[in-house]
Amino acid sequence: MFNSSSPHSPNVSSSTSLSHNSLPTLLFAIASDDVNEVRQVLESGEAGPNDQVGPQSALAFTLTNDKLAHKNEIVKALLAYGADPSALRNPDLNPSAQASAEGGEGVSGSHSQPGETMPEGMDPATRYYVTRADSTHTRQTSQLIYRSFFRPLTRVRYDLIGQDWVLEQLFRVLSMHSQRLSVAPIVVLLCGPSGHGKSLLARKFGSLLDIPTHTVNMTTLRSTHDLWQSYSMSPYEEPSSDTLAQFLLNNEGERCVVVLDEIEKVEDPKALYSLLMPWELGRCSLETGKRQVDLTKVIWLGTSNIGHDLVFEHQDSRQDPSKPVTREEYRDLMNLSRPHVSQCLGASLLSRVTTVLPFVPFSMEEKMAIAAEAVYSLTSNAAKTLSPQDVEEIVMEVLPSYIPSEGARSLHRAVSNQLVDLI
Questions:
Q1: Nearest 5°: phi and psi at 301?
Q2: What are the residues facing 283 on neighbouring strands?
Q3: Do the beta carbons of residue 259 and residue 188 sit within 8 Å?
Q4: How many CA atoms lie within 13 A of 340 on its CB side?
């Protein structure tokens, strides 16, 4: 599992087995090439993401270990749990190959950083995540919910590519609720073009917070009765025979998530009227003549393609569309989006929505990261035979196939076709 020829890798036999009776150390978890083992160790608190592995930080050790087929996933896990990328610039935590081999500190006043730990030596996805974790904006945004129940949501930025302003605004809303600055339930509408991460963010919400989630496919509803009697339709959730009404009763007064997927595609808009009371007061009767149920802690997440055209029009109207969207530009887009939502869902429903978060087009770096991740997901264990340069070459080949209206899906399809041609 280790590269025994590497001066960075401890001399541990590849036959070393992980204990099934106790959690492995971080070193063995990384060496197992199993990201779930790494998460387990970090979640348990047995090891920290900034612990040293031999002469290196855990992050540097992972980046310089060329025997890992799932290096990108392990790097993401370390960053998600708080690994500090600045350690890569610290010679004490990321010694050069020569210094590590000689057991010395190298030339005084200089640091020959291993190439694999420098941005130009990483594949586009790993480079994107390490750079993102190292940015001031990422740290400032995380601080918004650092001391709240919602803190685990900061890890979502290592699953979701792009949408930094969406996360900032979302964390602001959650921060206000954590400080009890708002008494109304949390109702968030994620809107914009397909393939830009709306469903992924909604799906990760409950799993990261470790709270129950119920997903309603709104395209199947014909009436108000259908809404409360709908079963969870997400393949990512534990199978359940509970209807939405039963789910809310089972979790009354507790944190839980209800995802209303493709909310604007409901056949009869009147089916949404029953949401007015729970969204405003945090309570309602789920059946006629029955008692009112406490829904104040329910987090309602709606996903929608409303504003698809508006997002691209706003992008084209920017002075330099190739540059990342600024905070001011994003807030302008948020303001422009609300009238579109009102027109589709009605002003009475919109007035009870805490915030509308439009998803924006990907930057060049984000598209490259998406394509690189697609390469890894499609090559699986064969990924360790691909160098970062090989991955970047494939990425550059598929970028012209990107279709903005399809988002990440167009890149996944292009990578799949490219890999078929290479085989």
A1: -120, 120
A2: 294
A3: no
A4: 21
Closest CA to 71 of 154, 134, 127, 112: 127
Could you give the maximum distance between any two Cα atoms of the chain, in Å? 80
Do the beta carbons of residue 283 and residue 296 sit within 8 Å? yes
- The DSSP bridge pattern shows strands 292-294 and 283-285 to be antiparallel
CB crowding 35-60: b at 16 or more within 10 Å, else e: bebbbebbeeeebebebbbbbbbbbb
User: In sequence order, what are the residues at sequence separation of 6 or more whose Cβ sits closer than 8 angstroms to the Cβ of residue 154?
Assistant: 80, 141, 142, 145, 146, 171
Query: Can you give the pTM of this predicted structure?
Result: 0.87
Strands (E), 104-208: 186-191
Residue range 78-119, pLDDT digits in tens: 999 999 999 999 998 888 865 555 555 544 445 578 889 999
How far is 336 from 330, CA to CA, in rounded Å?
A: 10
Q: Which has the closest alpha carbon to 300: 368, 227, 214, 221?
A: 214
What residue spans of 148-234 are helical by DSSP H?
A: 164-178, 198-209, 224-228
- The DSSP bridge pattern shows strands 186-191 and 298-304 to be parallel
